[in-house]
Amino acid sequence: MKKFYKAFLILFTLQFSLQNLTFAMEDKDHFSLNSEAAILIDGTTGSILFHKESDRLMYPASITKIVTGIIAIEEGNLDDIVTVSKAARSIDGTRVYLLEGERVPLLKLVQGLLINSGNDAATAVAEYFDESEAQFAERMNEFVSETIGVKNTTFQNPHGLFDQKHQTTAYDMARITQYAMKNPLFRSIVSTKEMEWVGEGWETTLYNHNKLLWRYEGTTGVKNGFVDQSGYTLVASAKRGSSEWIAVTLKSDSSELAYSDMVNLFDYGFEHYETYSISVDATSFQSYKDRFVIPKTLVFTGTKDIDFKVEIDQSDGQIVVIDSAGQIIYKEKLVPIVQSLQKTTTTTDQVIKTESESYRTSIPKIIILAVTTLFTLLLIRKQWIKKKRRYLSND
């Protein structure tokens, strides 16, 4: 069931990404950023609102833990108890001070790595799944490639400590985060400002390392990072009204400059763009209803306060949204009625065939059961007759 959900989710995300690809632009002239690479996307549609060197290979640092966290949530049993190893206890960098041999629920480890950026928690998660960081990194790479669909990311560990081959792009991290933020538990954890932590080696209050949760109105997540080679990295999301943006900044000179870049990106997005969800009046397309399946709702990204109309381009079978200047701002391929019926017929035929085969398979079983029952009844009758004869002879 999880695999089916993942397949549906990736197809859903790719659908919007492909439909809105022409919406992407590079808007460097609007403002400058300190970060060497950055991207701003619509978290709902996947439309790119701003990008700077978004396909350049970079070192991600602890934003790597976004992938570790979503894998643990989707593929693990969060109630499982994980025993902390010596390797996890000894890891460098930020920790939640786990002790060797300490037994910790998987969910608590996920909270520790996403809220407090615990490298020891990340290693413990990796070993829970695959016994080693290297093997878990293979799982991570397969997950982001096959489940999410990004192609320029290669992880070597679950926490983001520097490795020459541990690389990603701003674009890939935006898509990864878009996927992760569709999971309610992941969203809940990365939006948690503080959490009481009671462990064998540390009792404290964890405060989320993402300062935007306190500083920027509408922030919903997600993760920051730093190692010397990567500089300061940051992935964040913010929601206001119907719009939620996801932004990534890579290799900033300081934490404050990374946050400043993020605020500039979000301000730019909320000032200029909006996520639209409009109901389609099917009665306006009566002449097409016999040929195409008319969608009930269209979800797309557009500039703020635009006037638009919805039309059908029958030449290539698309429903299009056109602004007052006559520009197409959104288009969606329509499904022909014939194709839809064929799919329905095929599905129905498969169900009938399956039921028919099941029925045919069950017939021999029914016959065997009937014969066995009849034979048993005959034996009982025979035994009854013998007893009756003995009884009469005794009289």
TrEMBL record:
InterPro entries (UniProt xref): Beta-lactam/transpept-like, Peptidase_S11, Peptidase_S11_N
Spans traversing the lipid bilayer: 362-380
Sequence ranges assigned to domain Peptidase S11 D-alanyl-D-alanine carboxypeptidase A N-terminal in this UniProt record: 32-253
Active site as annotated: S62 (acyl-ester intermediate), K65 (proton acceptor), S117
GO biological process, one term: proteolysis
Positions annotated to bind substrate: K223
Pfam family, one: Peptidase_S11
GO molecular function: serine-type D-Ala-D-Ala carboxypeptidase activity
Keywords per UniProt: Cell shape, Cell wall biogenesis/degradation, Hydrolase, Membrane, Peptidoglycan synthesis, Signal, Transmembrane, Transmembrane helix
Signal sequence, start to end: 1-24
PANTHER family: D-ALANYL-D-ALANINE CARBOXYPEPTIDASE (PTHR21581), D-ALANYL-D-ALANINE CARBOXYPEPTIDASE DACB (PTHR21581:SF33)
Protein family: Belongs to the peptidase S11 family.
Protein name: Peptidase S11 D-alanyl-D-alanine carboxypeptidase A N-terminal domain-containing protein
Phylogenetic lineage: Bacteria, Bacillati, Bacillota, Bacilli, Bacillales
